[in-house]
Amino acid sequence: GDVVVEMSPMLKITNTDKPYQISLKYKDEYFTESAKTYNKDLSMLSFGAAMVTGSSDKANAFFTETGFSNITLHDFDKEPTKDTMGYIMAHKTIYDAELVAVTFRGLDYGLEWTNNFLIGKTGNHEGFNLRAEEAYTALQTYVNTYAQNKTLKLWISGYSRGGALSNTLASIILKGDKVNVSLDRKSGSAGMP
């Protein structure tokens, strides 16, 4: 179905004070196609998911309207600090699999941005890696609670700082020496046993 996303005033397109709205389409089929093929509609939907992270009400509405349940908003109930990281987890059954969405806050993240300066001396960006490791631990718990012993598909998205965190989380998940991950090369979806 369609879901309407209201964009942040910082992203307004015209010279009015009205926020820009876009109508996005959600389809379960987006997650049955190969991840190796670009899907413009899924890309826009992912951007829409990232744009609702500035408000718990908008985040809940977005994921509810697209059929997700057990919507969990991490660190949305407190003032953002250098030690917080807002993200949303939700899931739904699609065909023979469980789709788990993880969307990192990329708007209105207050002092969370200070973690961007924690670069580290070697390897991954230390600030992003610390927060992505926390999200990975939470994802394992979430999967064990809602999707255990099911075929798992992951939809990870984010904007700005959230985009960096989503890429770092995906890297952690896909590192064979870090976690036990199977990768379905045909569909391009990652699964956690």
Walk me through the topology.
Elements: E1 2-6, E2 21-25, H1 40-51, H2 56-65, E3 69-74, E4 87-94, E5 97-104, H3 126-146, E6 151-158, H4 161-174, E7 182-184, E8 189-191
Parallel strand pairs: 5-6
Antiparallel strand pairs: 1-2, 3-4, 4-5, 7-8
Helix pairs in contact: 3-4
Task: Tell me about this structure.
- The structure is a single chain.
- The longest helix has 21 residues, at 126-146.
- The chain starts with a strand and ends with a strand.
- The chain has four helices and eight strands, in the order E-E-H-H-E-E-E-H-E-H-E-E.
- The chain has helices spanning 40-51, 56-65, 126-146, 161-174, and strands at 2-6, 21-25, 69-74, 87-94, 97-104, 151-158, 182-184, 189-191.
- With 193 residues, it is α+β, with helices and mostly antiparallel strands.
Quick take:
The chain is an alpha+beta fold and 193 residues long.
Instruction: Return the structural class.
Output: alpha+beta
Report the total helices.
Answer: 4
Helix fraction, binned, reads: 25-40%
Which blocks of ≥5 consecutive residues have pLDDT under 50? 7-14, 176-182, 185-193
Looking at the structure, what is the overall shape? Answer: globular
Mean pLDDT across every amino acid position: 77
Q: How far is the N terminus from the C terminus?
A: 30 Å
What Rg, in angstroms, do the CA atoms define?
16 Å
Element string (H = helix, E = strand): EEHHEEEHEHEE
| Total strand segments | 8
Strand residues, percent: 15-25%
Spatial arrangement of strands, main beta sheet: 3-4-5-6
Largest sheet entry: 4 strands, mixed
